[in-house]
Amino acid sequence: MSRISSVDLRLAIRELGLSGRAVCAHSSLRSFGDLEGGADAFVEAFLSEHCTLLVPSFSWSFCVAPPEGMRPLRNAFDYERGFTSPVRASTYTPDTDAIDDDMGAIPRAVVRRPDRIRGAHPLCSFAAVGTEAGAIIERQAPLGVFAPLAALADREGFVLLAGVGLPNMTLIHLAERRAGRQPFRRWAKMASGEVIEAASGGCGAGFDALEPILAPITRERKVGDSRWRVFPARETVEIAARAIAENPQVTRCADPSCLLCADAIAGGPI
Ligand SMILES: [Zn+2]
């Protein structure tokens, strides 16, 4: 197993052209081998290179059952099946540290930092640190789930896949939106007691099919044992949105019974 240090991370950030830029990272800390300093060292390496680091910080444990009157059709949700809301003492606010276990160590490290800014989306927030964190996060809202990614693309930022694949790239859900798909609707209870609709992406398991058309704009490097791939956000959205508009089936995953894929390809909720 490779042992890697902050020096190796900073060299990789520099060589991939990420210094000083906004970067949305999807990562598997385990893929690095043995990283000295762990997830915090990863975050610090980006800040030392004057990057703004953006991560998904989803918190599906705040999802509640759909109220009557908030049940759109074609929403990849079986309203008959029943849905038991978790009993929670708290509701989501951007100040909470609650984050889904499967988001991984690096998003967890970002969310726990006192200087991070987290979006106002109860289920699919993004969190960021660095000089542009406020500008990137501020427009996120329950129905504006992809606003941080749109802001990333607007400022010529990048997406980094560090030891993970295209199915993890939330930016492709923004491309689906640009190709005309409505995001799915889920539900969360706010501090006032009111239940609101929150938009979310769907299934990404089929996104590997976009790899060949993104290859020409992808930069790649090994960092320890980890395969790092970097994608310019604006071009990636444009290329993926065009491919999805031309062939909506391109994003379909291998599971023929996947309701998320079926309803997304049909255009999403109505
Ligand atoms: Zn699927």
Q: Which helices and strands appear, and what pairs or packs with what?
A:
Layout: E1 3-4, H1 6-15, E2 22-27, E3 34-35, H2 38-48, E4 52-56, H3 105-111, E5 117-118, E6 126-129, H4 133-137, H5 147-154, E7 158-162, H6 171-178, E8 184-189, E9 195-200, H7 211-214, E10 219-223, E11 226-232, H8 233-246, H9 259-265
Parallel strand pairs: 1-3, 2-4, 2-7
Antiparallel strand pairs: 4-6, 5-6, 7-11, 8-9, 10-11
Helix pairs in contact: 1-2, 2-3, 5-8, 6-8
Bound molecules: zinc ion.
Zinc ion (ZN) binds at residues 203, 205, 253, 255, 258, 260-261.
Structural key phrases:
single chain; binds zinc ion; 270 residues; 9 helices; alpha/beta; two-stranded parallel sheet
Number of strands: 11
Helix content: 25-40%
Order of strands across the widest beta sheet? 5-6-4-2-7-11-10
Present as ligands are: zinc ion
- Sequence stretches where pLDDT stays below 50 over 5 or more residues: none
Strand content: 15-25%
Summing up helix and strand content along with how strands pair, one would put the structural category as alpha/beta
Radius of gyration, in Å, reads: 18 Å
Q: Give the overall form.
A: globular
Figure out the total of helices. Answer: 9
Mean pLDDT score: 96
Our measurement of the CA-to-CA distance between the termini, rounded to an integer number of angstroms, reads 50 Å
Note the main sheet. 7 strands, mixed
H/E element string? EHEEHEHEEHHEHEEHEEHH
